[in-house]
Amino acid sequence: IPEGKNILEVAAILAEAGLGDAAALEAAMRDPALLKELEIPGPTAEGYLFPETYEFLTGSEPGDVARRLVRQFITVMNELKPQATTMLS
Length: 89
Description:
Blueprint: H1 7-16, H2 22-30, H3 32-37, H4 62-88
Helix pairs in contact: 1-2, 2-4
């Protein structure tokens, strides 16, 4: 997933890679239950889909794909927080 892509572009990239239908992937990125589970305060996962190279199993569920991108974002942010705090001090 290249940096700077919005959810429509990310869904299209994932669909082109064979991970399902772009509309279903986008719907997962807008699913209120999934957003609540991932503690995303907004109406979409926009801004929480980490740009990275991923490997997925064929047939992965759209929600699982969205979870993975968001969890990677959370992982990287948690790794960077101590560095950011140090820089601000």
